[in-house]
Amino acid sequence: MMLIYALAAALLLLFLATLLLPEQFTRLGLAAERRLSGLETRQAWVDGFDMPYLEGGKGEALVLIHGFGGDKDNFTRIARFLTPHYRVIIPDLPGFGDASRDPAASYTMSEQVARVHALLAQLGVGRAHLGGNSMGGFIAAQYAATLPEQVATVWLLDPAGTAASHSSPMLQHYEKTGENPLLVRTVADFDKTISSTTFIKPFLPRFVIKAMARRAVADFALHTRIMRQLSESTLLETRYQALATPALIVWGAQDQILSPAGVDAFRRLFPDSAISVMKDTGHLPMLERPKQTARDYLAWRVRSPHTVLETTA
Q: What is the mean pLDDT of the segment spanning 110-123?
């Protein structure tokens, strides 16, 4: 009986500790997830910013770029299916995640492309495969357009950067009011961020959600400024046409952040493309359906780039 009481007391203390120290326990949990995916945390210094990144696996370089308000760990769970095949590199973009922040700096898409390019140069990566979600998809597509000789393929997961992508009711509401679920004023608002970005909510302990919410609130002013720069960025189709880079274009059919109508716009931008529209999936396929999203990517990489994938259930 005493053993049961002792175990109950220990569990209670652990629960209270997660409430009081969410950031510390989140770091421990992320470290465990990274080990499971074969990833190690490394540091780089780019354009005056600390720019940490995850790296694991061997083979051709696959660089994955997170979206607005996200960070490198948006790809940690899917990476476990990718590191057996590729050298996976996942940076935190300046202004996000564990990268440093400079309120006076500029965070335009062109500047973020240049920072990713500088990071890869430091790592000795020449030609690479690029993947990106949301804002990260915008960056990956623009990288391929401006540095085509250095990009073998692009993997675009619910990418921003076209008028059709930005035609969602959520972004139209943002343009009218300045309100956006990706801009978090209070910790309580973060639940709306999760429900807006996912159709299938990935498992996250409550202390992780609390830690993420606190960081989002701390970033509210800076991210409000970066969001405005993103919304004012020149759309891809106004600058580029018929890019030769092979592309896999993936979209969650229930994406509330960016409209699935963007599929056709990106298909025109990347004619040598395959399409996967994922049913019952929101804005973050790599978090909501990591195994399926990775399986589709791996299958595409071994097929002809011209092969069109069937709509994913």
A: 97
